[in-house]
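pinging the channel bc i need a second pair of eyes. not urgent but kinda urgent?? the chain im working w is below, pasted from the shared doc
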Amino acid sequence: MRFLFLDHILSYEKGKSAVGTKSVTMSEDFLADHFPSFPIMPGVLQVEAISQLASWLIYVTKDFKVRGTIAGIEKVKFKDPVKPGDQLTVEVQIISWDEEGVTFRGETKANGRVKTVLDSGRMNFIEVEKLEDPAEAREHFSILTREKPRGIFSP
């Protein structure tokens, strides 16, 4: 099973930055246990949303041939809880590139407030076909970016 923590990629600049969104709804499975009387999105899942956006940025930058896998996370600050009904804005910036991967930073925001700050993360490159079907990955990216219409509205 695949857990997706991005609903939409709003914008990206290849090799530099990306912005996406995640709507946190009361139907999220993780809210049942975290915490029953005060449901909040776990910080680790916010870090995962940031990391997923960084991986998609790597994917589009590297011509849809590689993705990123988390190799390390440092200096994370959780500033404010994310609650059901919040729409997270997720932002990532690439700090540096090398032949093995990237160093990146990111943050989440909702309702005009910074929720989580990831000062430094590391992703290593992995070929897309080692993770998933390349055609499915490309289709998923087009859905996230809304590059083409879907469903009954598609040509």
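so The domain at 8-150 is CATH 3.10.129.10 (Thiol Ester Dehydrase; Chain A). and Strands lie at 8-13, 17-23, 66-78, 87-97, 101-110, 113-127. — does that match what u expected or am i reading it wrong
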